[in-house]
Structure formats: structure tokens, C-alpha cells
Specification:
The protein has helices spanning about 40-45, 90-100, 110-120, 135-145, 165-180, 190-200, 215-220, 330-335; strands spanning about 5-10, 15-20, 25-30, 50-55, 60-65, 65-70, 75-80, 150-155, 185-190, 200-205, 210-215, 235-245, 250-255, 260-265, 270-280, 280-285, 295-305, 310-320, 320-330, 345-350, 350-355. The protein is α+β, with helices and mostly antiparallel strands. The protein has two domains: about 5-215, P-loop containing nucleotide triphosphate hydrolases (Rossmann fold); about 235-355, Beta Barrel (OB fold (Dihydrolipoamide Acetyltransferase, E2P)), CATH 2.40.50. The chain has a six-stranded mixed β-sheet, sandwiched between helices. Strands 2-1-4-5-6 form a five-stranded antiparallel β-sheet, covered by helices on one side. A five-stranded antiparallel β-sheet has the order 14-13-12-15-21. The structure holds adenosine-5'-triphosphate. InterPro entries: AAA+_ATPase, ABC_transporter-like_ATP-bd, ABC_transporter-like_CS, Mo/tungstate-bd_C_term_dom, ModC_ABC_ATP-bd, Molybdenum_import_ModC, Mop_domain, P-loop_NTPase.
Length: about 350
């Protein structure tokens, strides 16, 4: 099992009405525009704000018909807010020890040492929170949350306060929580890129309700999903490392959509990885270019086209049975006379890799 919710929550005229079944493992991304109720949903699950309805986690009913059956402090979860809140008078080791000691001895599983290893903060143990960067503080806050031995991690936009470099440094640590600990994560964000890099499952919210849900790779590349029509539309492709070309700092991958060459990946041959392909980094042509600077040119078929914004279209392609999105100007689509069923070549300019 998993987390089953059937919740109603009213806040100053805003109504959250959410029924969903979150899986027992992996990262479930909760995505939606500002004000749609993502934080409200997370806080209602944590029991930090009152709600009506039911909440069941694993074999336990936390709430039934709005009645709390398990008090908030006994729900075995950790809630991480956008801004890390560390104890300023304790160093990193003290912050972790505080959380660890609050867990009954027999239930302690994640030691401060293990949490520090997972989050890569072994060197910071004797530093005070004030001396840490935003990204380092967030890693310590996550490690401290892990020391409380949670069976469910709720993360509310943990990267939103960080710059893009700090964000990309923290992403692999978030992945490693999921790889090293059997702890499901519900991860709120309005960044499609974060969702593409992290989420296994996606829940899409709009105006207080859950409007869609499903596997992230499928949902991101469905043309009728609200995610496909934005400027940041992205597709997920699963791949395996074939070999490295040290001279040119490149790696060759075997992927869902065929062989791909990407910037050198620091993983041994045979490793599995996830690739995120931004729709705006994919261009189309009708004939295979003979001399192009672009390394990845793959045969594909147009499966559908949808107007994205004025002057722009999103094209859904089928490539080896896998869907991929490309963002073009409406003018290019018209000049190429793109329509469903047409054979094209997809030129993939850059690929971001998430292992
Ligand atoms: N403390 C509060 N009291 C009353 N209404 C609130 C409170 N916090 C949020 N709301 C309202 O609830 C609605 C949902 O807010 P919420 O913060 O859950 O959205 P969100 O999707 O997380 O937004 P964002 O992505 O901007 O963080 C909004 O209309 C907001 O104004």
C-alpha cells in the first residue's frame, strides 16, 4: 500500500477537493500553477491544517470523516518547507542528533551518519547553519528530516529558493534518497524540469482539484496535458550507457528513441539513466541533413499537433513507439506542411541527463 486521500479543505473562499491514491514508493510529483492548492494539499496530508475527509497511510487510518485518528506528531512523516528551518544555535551534527534522538530507540533506522552520507554533508558537521549556503542548508534540513526516520517525505518546493546552479547540485541528492531508502516522497513543484528529472508519477492540480495523474513519462508528453503546451514542455526518455568517447567528452546511449550521443556521462557502461529532452531543443526537417552540427538526428512520425501559444505549436512525435514533444513556430510547421502521419527527422540539440 500507499497513501490514500479523500480530502476537502476550505481556506478563505478557496476549496481544495482532492481524491487520490499515492503509490508506496518512488517520487510522486504534484504540479500545478501558483495558487492551485499544492501547499494546501501537502499541509492537509501532514495534518498541519484542518481538513474534512479521509486519510489512510499503509495499514493505518490517520483521519476518518475529518476526525483525526492519529495525531500529527505520531504520523510517521517529515515535512520540508521551501525555506529550511534549522536550529541556529546547534551545528549540523547537533541538528541531526536532535531529530535522531526524538525517534524511539527501537525504531531508529536512519542514523545521522547515513543521512549525512546520502545528502553529502559529512564535511559540514561542525559548521553552524549561518555559515552554510542556501543549498547546503537545504541538504542539512533534508538530512535532519531523514534522521526522524520518516515513512513518508513531503517536500514543498525544496529548490524554489535556490539559484539554478544550487538546484542542479541538489537534484542528485534528492534522487539518492529515493534510491537508498525505501521512503515514498510527495514532491511539490511548479517546475516542469524538476518534475521531468525527479518524478516517477505525476499529479496535476488546477483550482483546488486533481485534474490528471499518471506515470510522469507518459503525462509529460501527452499533447492534451496542460504541461505539453507551455514553453518548458519536456519529454522523458529512458536510456542505457553504451560507451564513452573520452577524446570528445561524449557518451553514446541506447535509448527509447534510438541511439543518442550526449555530453560525457559520469556512469559506467550499462548504467540506466533518465534523459530530459526540452521540446524547444528539438527541431524538425523533412530530409536527413548530410552536414549538420547536431549529433542526434532521428527518424520520427508526427502523431499530433497542437497550438501552444500564439505563433507557436507543440508537435507530438512518435519515435520507436515512444512519444516526444517538439516546439516550433507556427510558421515553420506550416512551411513544412506538418500533419499527423508525416515522416520527419527530429534534430535533438541538447539533452539534460538525470541518472
Ligand atoms: N493561510 C492561509 N489562509 C487562507 N488562505 C490561504 C492560506 N494559504 C493559502 N491560502 C489560499 O489557498 C489557495 C491555495 O494556496 P496554496 O499555497 O495551497 O497554492 P500553491 O499551489 O501551493 O501555490 P504556490 O505554487 O504559489 O506556492 C490560494 O488561493 C491561497 O490564497
Amino acid at each position: 500500500m500507499s497513501l490514500e486521500i479523500d480530502l476537502f479543505c476550505e481556506r478563505d473562499g478557496f476549496l481544495l477537493e482532492a481524491k487520490h491514491h499515492f503509490p508506496a514508493s518512488g517520487i510522486s510529483g504534484v504540479f500545478g500553477p501558483s495558487g492551485c492548492g499544492k501547499t494546501t494539499l501537502l499541509r492537509a496530508i501532514a495534518g498541519l491544517i484542518p481538513s474534512r475527509g479521509d486519510l489512510h497511510f499503509k495499514a493505518t487510518s490517520w483521519q476518518r470523516d475529518g476526525r483525526q485518528l492519529v495525531p500529527v506528531h505520531q504520523r510517521n512523516l517529515a515535512y520540508l518547507a521551501q525555506q529550511p528551518a534549522l536550529f541556529p544555535h546547534l551545528d549540523v551534527a547537533g541538528n541531526l542528533a536532535y531529530a535522531y534522538k526524538r525517534v524511539p530507540k527501537l525504531q531508529r533506522q536512519i542514523t545521522p551518519q547515513l543521512a549525512s552520507d546520502i545528502m553529502g554533508i559529512g564535511d559540514y558537521q561542525h559548521r553552524g547553519p549561518a555559515s552554510l549556503s542556501g543549498g547546503e542548508k537545504q541538504r542539512v534540513a533534508i538530512a535532519r528530516a531523514l534522521c526522524s526516520n520518516p515513512q513518508l517525505l513531503l517536500m514543498d518546493e525544496p529548490l524554489s529558493a535556490l539559484d539554478s546552479e544550487a538546484k542542479s547540485q541538489l537534484l542528485p541528492y534528492l534522487k539518492s534518497i529515493h534510491h537508498e531508502l525505501d521512503c515514498p516522497i510527495i514532491y511539490v513543484s511548479h517546475s516542469q524540469t524538476e518534475m521531468a528529472q525527479l518524478a516517477d508519477q505525476l499529479v496535476i492540480m488546477h483550482e483546488g482539484g486533481i485534474v490528471r495523474h499518471g506515470p510522469a513519462d507518459q503525462l509529460l508528453s501527452q499533447l492534451d496535458s496542460p504541461l505539453a503546451l507551455t514553453n518548458n514542455a519536456v519529454s522523458i526518455v529512458h536510456a542505457r550507457v553504451l560507451e564513452h568517447d573520452a577524446e570528445f567528452h561524449l557518451s553514446e546511449l541506447d535509448s527509447d528513441i534510438g541511439k543518442l550521443v550526449v555530453p560525457l556521462v559520469d556512469l559506467p557502461a550499462g548504467s540506466q539513466l533518465r534523459l530530459c529532452l526540452a521540446a524547444k531543443d528539438i527541431s524538425l526537417c523533412l530530409e536527413k541533413p548530410t552536414s549538420s552540427s547536431i549529433q542526434n538526428i532521428l527518424p520520427a512520425t508526427v502523431s499530433a499537433i497542437s497550438e501552444a501559444q500564439q505563433g507557436a505549436v507543440t508537435v507530438q512525435l512518435e519515435c520507436h513507439g515512444h512519444h516526444l514533444l517538439a516546439k516550433l513556430t507556427a510558421k515553420s510547421a506550416s512551411e513544412l506542411d506538418l500533419q499527423a502521419g508525416k515522416s520527419v527527422f527530429a534534430q535533438i540539440k541538447s539533452v539534460s541527463v538525470s541518472s
